[in-house]
Amino acid sequence: MEQDELLRHAARCFVEHGIRYFVTGAVAAIAYGEPRLTNDIDVVADLDEDKIPRLKSCYPAEEFYFDEGSAGRAVRTRSKFNIIHPGSGLKIDIMIARGDEFDQSRFRRVRRLKPLEDTEVDFASPEDVILKKLDFYRRGGSDKHLRDIAGILKISADIIDLAYIEVWARTLGLEELWASVSQKARGS
Fold first, then answer.
1. pTM of this prediction?
2. Which of 5, 20, 144, 169 is deepest in the core (most CB within 10 A)?
């Protein structure tokens, strides 16, 4: 299985079972920015425990690893679980929506893109991808997040709402980091 096939499969499954979702992380950064390698698809899902069996039905045991217990714990603790395709080494990281103000804003700003010829997929907005990348950089320091942000700012500059980023950067305690990153992106 290739990553585009897994993305198609996941998007169709979420839609089929009425589960709100959006793709974020590296796959979203690639959609708005520059290509790079990644072996996972990060998804934020508004998932309830009663929908876990229906979601699992999309991922047959002979092809995928899907642990219902881990999914249930993730829903109860508002954390994450993953679905693995052992044959390819690809995985989907499902982060359960927290329901906080920022997550609500991210769901309102979802963009439906057509990254595949025959499939539309819900993606986080480029602004929200940037904000989460800033947060991940702050927590872990990996430069890949800064490269992803630079790529988004370079490729998608004309569609980015900088005022939105500034408001949420201030709210999320990312203001200084955003100022530094955006200044470097402008070449100042």
1. 0.94
2. 169
The CATH code for residues 3-124 is 3.30.460
Q: Which of 185, 147, 179 is nearest to 166 (CA)?
A: 179
Round to whole Å and give the CA distance between 62 and 21: 25
Q: Each residue of 41-63: pLDDT tens digit?
A: 999 999 999 999 999 999 999 99
CA distance 30 to 135: 18
Helix axes 175-185, 126-140, angle to 10 degrees: 110
Beta bridge partners of 94: 43, 81
Give the separation between CA 26 and CA 32, rounded to whole angstroms.
Answer: 10
CATH 3.30.460 residue ranges of the chain are 3-124
Residue 92's DSSP bridge partners are 41, 83
Distance (Å, rounded) from C-alpha 6 to C-alpha 9? 5
